[in-house]
């Protein structure tokens, strides 16, 4: 997951293919290049240096530990397609620069797939199949093998002896801190691979889906974008623009999860979302263990 | 020879005359046999990876952590009521189903459930190594 240095670039691969197959078309029709190949177009704007002189638009609210420095990223705008970034924002390193724990990402992802899984596979046992109460023929004298019922598992049409039984659930819960750490590792990995973009707000000039697609292609964000915003009411323009798009999705900040982060190539957060996430995720580093579930009222926790 | 037999068996489904021939005449061929051409490798099925369900999968799974603990992810599970936020082996599931839903069940289903519980109890607690 750490950044590899690709020798080939997107167009370089095409040129190599063009030179080797000179008689056929330039590119084979079934060529599938991964969209996250390092492209020279994407390297135009490097992330802001750690000691840049620009005043940050946003500083970390929580205290940053002394041995860590805040992560700096550009704050962009969705108003115009080719606008320059508005400024620099500082993000808390304990949320956005956590060591990349792939095992935690894997365990959180498998938890998300399995805890809601209900398997409805069901087979009937020999006692549940209709019929089969009577002994088909007498024990001795008929010349045939001895049997007790016509629905035993060795008979055709008989019950299944060790088959799936009824709706089965695969529910389990990971510890809360593991799930929190999974979110932090996911956000840090997206930040480390330049797939996390901060935007000041989700105001778009037109409710046109094509505008969003052009903007994403122009800025080389990737094939799929997940847009996260705090609050329940979104502006009508962004809702209408993303309604018809399959790979661009808008979710509230409460709905952020590791599976969606891994499914979409790029993630767009607003400044309020960053504040909300830092607030929620950093609280778990310094909380006491719960004496009773958190959903019951505590005096000092809203 | 096995190649010829395989092709004949494949061709038997393609045209019935070859199928009848299979049982009556033993054909011998000395050259390469490519008379019957079939799509031996089936086409991979086309799956749309970006349907509404797939693109929104897993949203709100962290509703507890990010939403002030007013809800729990177990509230999101769509399941029969005796299986919501519960995991157990077959005996435990059957006992829970009887406890929660037993008085609403049809008589035949309830009878089967009780027989199954009785069987599983005796099987788990009286036979085998672990009792």
Please characterize this protein's 3D structure:
Chain B: It comes from Pundamilia nyererei. Chain B: This is Large ribosomal subunit protein mL51. Chain B: One of its GO terms (biological process) is translation. Chain B: It is found in: Mitochondrion. Chain B: Keywords: Mitochondrion, Ribonucleoprotein, Ribosomal protein, Transit peptide. Chain A: Its main location: mitochondrion. The complex is a heterodimer of chains A (302) and B (131). By secondary structure, chain A is an alpha/beta fold. Chain A has a domain at 57-114 and 173-286: Ribosomal Protein L4, Chain: A (3-Layer(aba) Sandwich). Chain A is built from 8 helices and 8 strands. In chain A, the strands form 2 sheets. In chain A, strands 2-1-5-8-6-7 form a 6-stranded mixed beta sheet, sandwiched between helices. A two-stranded antiparallel sheet of chain A has the order 3-4. In chain A, helix 6 links the parallel strand 6 and strand 7. Residues 1-18 of chain A have low confidence and may be disordered. Helices cover 47% and strands 0% of the residues of chain B. The two termini of chain B are 57 Å apart. Chain B is flat and about 75 Å long. Chain B has helices at 2-14, 16-24, 52-55, 63-66, 90-101, 107-126. Residues 1-8 and 10-22 of chain B have low confidence and may be disordered. Chain B contains 6 helices and no strands. Chain B has a domain at 52-126. By secondary structure, chain B is an all-alpha fold. Chains A and B meet through strand 4, helix 4, helix 7 and helix 8 of A and helix 4, helix 5 and helix 6 of B.
């Amino acid at each position: 997951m750490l950044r590899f240095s690709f020798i080939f670039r997107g167009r370089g691969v095409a040129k190599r293919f063009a030179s080797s197959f000179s008689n056929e078309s330039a590119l084979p029709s079934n060529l599938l290049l991964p969209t996250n190949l390092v492209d020279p177009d994407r390297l135009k704007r490097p992330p802001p240096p750690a000691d840049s002189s620009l005043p940050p638009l946003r500083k970390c609210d929580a205290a940053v530990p002394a041995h860590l420095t805040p992560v700096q990223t550009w704050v962009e705008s969705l108003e115009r397609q080719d606008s320059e970034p508005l400024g620099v924002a500082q993000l808390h390193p304990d949320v956005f620069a956590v060591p990349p724990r792939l095992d935690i990402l894997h365990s959180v992802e498998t938890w998300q797939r399995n805890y809601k899984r209900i398997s409805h596979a069901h087979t009937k046992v020999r006692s549940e199949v209709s019929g089969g109460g009577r002994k088909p023929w007498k024990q001795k004298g008929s010349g045939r093998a001895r049997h007790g019922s016509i629905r035993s598992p060795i008979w055709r049409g008989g019950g299944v002896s060790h088959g799936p039984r009824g709706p089965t659930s695969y529910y389990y819960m990971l510890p809360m801190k593991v799930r929190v750490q999974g979110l932090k590792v996911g956000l840090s990995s997206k930040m480390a691979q330049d797939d996390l973009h901060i935007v000041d707000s989700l105001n778009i000039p037109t409710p046109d889906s094509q505008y969003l697609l052009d903007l994403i292609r122009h800025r080389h964000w990737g094939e799929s974008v997940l847009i996260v915003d705090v609050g329940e009411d979104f502006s009508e323009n962004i809702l209408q623009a993303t309604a018809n798009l399959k790979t661009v999705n808008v979710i509230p900040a409460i709905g952020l999860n590791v599976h969606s982060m891994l499914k979409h190539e790029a993630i767009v957060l607003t400044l309020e979302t960053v504040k909300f996430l830092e607030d929620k995720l950093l609280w778990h580093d310094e909380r006491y263990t719960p004496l009773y579930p958190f959903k019951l009222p505590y005096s000092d926790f809203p | 020879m096995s190649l010829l037999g395989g092709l004949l068996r494949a061709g038997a489904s393609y045209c019935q005359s070859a199928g009848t021939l299979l049982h009556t005449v033993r054909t011998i061929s000395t050259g390469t046999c490519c008379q019957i051409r079939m799509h031996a490798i089936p086409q991979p099925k086309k799956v749309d990876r970006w349907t509404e369900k797939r693109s929104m999968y897993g949203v709100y799974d962290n509703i507890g952590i990010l939403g002030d603990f007013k809800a729990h992810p177990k509230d999101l599970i769509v399941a029969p009521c005796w299986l919501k936020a519960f995991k157990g082996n077959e005996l435990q599931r059957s006992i829970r189903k009887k406890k929660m839903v037993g008085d609403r069940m049809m008589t035949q289903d309830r009878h089967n459930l009780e027989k199954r519980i009785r069987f599983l109890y005796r099987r788990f607690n009286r036979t085998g190594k672990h009792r």
